[in-house]
Amino acid sequence: xxxxxxxxxxxxxxxxxxxxxxxxxxxxxxxxxxxxxxxxxxxxxxxxxxxxxxxxxxxxxxxxxxxxxxxxxxxxxxxxxxxxxxxxxxxxxxxxxxxxxxxxxxxxxxxxxxxxxxxxxxxxxxxxxxxxxx
Length: 134
What we know:
The protein is α+β, with helices and mostly antiparallel strands. It is 31% helix and 28% strand.
């Protein structure tokens, strides 16, 4: 059995944070892109204190990873989000989501309530189909 090497994708900047925590922003496998969970951190890696701004930053981080692989949110087929208080956070998440994801058809979406996100209150990960080169 031949094992292929991981094809890692990184957006510009923040490489020190990926190295420090020993993970890739995304892995390309064939025509699929598997994006690691993105949080709403400030440039120094600390959590954005305002919840809605934290969600917007997480979506922006996801967008930068997608862009590094030649993708956009239109290419996203599956999303998983993690929430520390889903009931109280739902409206803010939906406002940001609607401004980024756009109109139907929507990607698959699974939301999970969790008790710990390393100081964050929201995390988003995704799978996207990488568009064929034009």
